[in-house]
Amino acid sequence: MAAFSVCPNSVVKVSGPGEPGQAWTSERNGPVVRFIVDTFGADRAMFASNFPVDSLCATFGEIVHGMKSVMASYPRPAQAAFFSATARRVYRLGTA
Asked: How far is CA 86 from CA 4, 22, 65, 71, 82, in A?
């Protein structure tokens, strides 16, 4: 991922981190999420979900809450980028 991150036009969706047979927790998956955000920057990383496959590890609410917990230490602009602004820009969704 670090080698990929040097490509300035690369963007990564952060979805489905987890371990087979293990419950999804922010403690278990936080290091992976933080590595991606720290490596790419929040302006090139975005929250995504692999639901319903992710339901093997957690509910959608547990994953969203866990991701928010992982991102809580980042400044508000980075959180906004990760949870919405990056996807809006990349997918050209506008602000509506």
From this structure: 18, 29, 19, 15, 6
What letter represents residue 40's amino acid?
Answer: F
In terms of Cα–Cα distance, which of 40, 68, 64 is closest to 54?
A: 64
Close Cβ partners of 67 (under 8 Å, ≥ 6 residues apart): 14, 26, 33, 47, 83
- pTM listed for this prediction: 0.90
**What would the pLDDT profile of 21-64 be if each residue is shown by its tens digit?**
888 889 999 999 999 999 999 999 999 988 888 888 889 999 99
CA angle in degrees (0–180, nearest 5) for 51-25-16: 30
Q: How distant, in Å, are the alpha carbons of 19, 20, 23, 66 from that of 83?
A: 23, 25, 22, 13
